[in-house]
Amino acid sequence: MKIVFCSEPFYPHEVDYAYREEFAAAVRAGFETALFSFEDLTENEISRAFRRIGPSEKPEAAVYRGWMLKPA
C-alpha cells in the first residue's frame, strides 16, 4: 500500500511541513510513499499535480494524507 502526501508548494520534492512527522513515521513503518502537488490539483492541473507519481503495472491501494478536498 502506498501513502500519498502533499508536497511543499515551493519545494515539490519535500513533504508539506504539516505532514513531516507522519511522513517520517510512514517511511519508518515500511510504507511506500509518494508526493503530489495539492495546489496543482485544486487548479485542475491533474497530470501536473501527479507527475511525480509514476504509473503502476497493476492497480494498488493508496491512502491520501493531506489537506481536505471538495467532493467534486
Query: How much is the average pLDDT?
Result: 91
- End-to-end separation in angstroms reads 25 Å
Write down the domain tally: 1
**Overall outline:** globular
Portion of residues in helices? 25-40%
Q: SSE order, as H and E?
A: EEHEHHE
Largest sheet: 4 strands, mixed
> What's the tally of helices?
3
Classify the beta-strand content into a percent band: 25-35%
Tally the beta strands.
4
* Assembly form of the protein: single chain
Rg (CA only) = 12 Å
Structure keywords:
single chain; 72 residues; alpha/beta; 4-stranded mixed sheet; 4 strands; globular
Describe the structure.
By secondary structure, this protein is an alpha/beta fold. It has one domain. Helices cover 25% and strands 29% of the residues. It contains three helices and four strands. Strands 1, 2, 3 and 4 form a four-stranded mixed β-sheet that branches. A hairpin with a 2-residue loop joins strand 1 and strand 2. The radius of gyration is 12 Å and the shape is globular. The termini are far apart. The model has no long low-confidence stretch (mean pLDDT 91).
In short:
The chain has 3 helices and 4 strands, in the order ββαβααβ. It is α/β, with parallel strands linked by helices and 72 residues long.
Strand and helix layout:
Blueprint: E1 2-8, E2 11-15, H1 20-28, E3 32-36, H2 38-42, H3 46-49, E4 62-65
Parallel strand pairs: 1-3, 1-4
Antiparallel strand pairs: 1-2
